[in-house]
Amino acid sequence: QVQLVESGGGLVQAGGSLRLSCAASESIFTFSAMGWYRQAPGKQRDLVATLTIGDITDYADSVKGRFTISRDNAENTVYLQMNSLRPADTAVYYCHAYRPGNWGTRFDYWGQGTQVTVSS
Questions:
Q1: Residues near 54 by Cβ (< 8 Å), separated by ≥ 6?
Q2: Exposed e or buried b for every residue in 9-28, given b needs 16+ CB within 10 A?
Q3: Which among 62, 39, 61, 35 is positioned nearest to 49, based on CA atoms?
Q4: Residue 104's CB: how many other CB atoms inside 10 A?
Q5: Helix, strand, coil: what percent of the chain each, to 5?
Q6: What pLDDT score was predicted for residue 101?
Q7: What is the structure's pLDDT at 92?
Q8: 112 burial level (CB within 10 Å; 0-12, 13-18, 19+)
Q9: pLDDT reported for residue 19
């Protein structure tokens, strides 16, 4: 059973920074991609950033230039560096990973989420 454990959330003032970590229980090379999603109260869960096994990154428009996704292969950990935080970034942040299965299927894995609160 794959486990993704997030850490690093908290309360920060607008303009501040936080770094989220997601530690995987297996080698991150077994995943096609890993990433971060977020969900604010009453809203759907949206993509924040992804990083593929081939080092291709993708970011939501709202975080481009402020957030950076990276990984430490030796530690099986993916990070999300968040700078210039805004109150609109307040949400529960979830780590995500997926790998392909047989016959065109895929397996998606989620962490338990970590709260990020940005005060104005």
A1: none
A2: beebeeeeebebbbbbeeeb
A3: 35
A4: 6
A5: 10, 55, 35
A6: 87
A7: 98
A8: exposed
A9: 98
Number of residues that this document lists for the chain = 120
pLDDT above 70: percentage of residues in the chain? 100
Question: Residues near 61 by Cβ (< 8 Å), separated by ≥ 6?
Answer: none
Tell me the sheet residues that pair with 108: 98
Query: Which of helix, strand or coil describes residue 93?
Result: strand
- Both tokens of 2, joined, read 């794959």
22 pairs with which residues across the strands? 6, 78
pLDDT band at 108 (very low <50, low <70, confident <90, very high): very high
Greatest Cα-to-Cα distance within the chain, rounded to the nearest angstrom:
49
The yes-or-no verdict on residue 10 having pLDDT over 90 is yes
Q: How many helices (H) and strands (E) does the chain have?
A: 0, 11
Give the model confidence (pLDDT) of 43-67 as tens digits.
999 999 999 999 999 999 999 999 9
d(Cα 93, Cα 73) in Å, to the nearest integer?
21
CA dist 65 and 57 (Å) reads 12
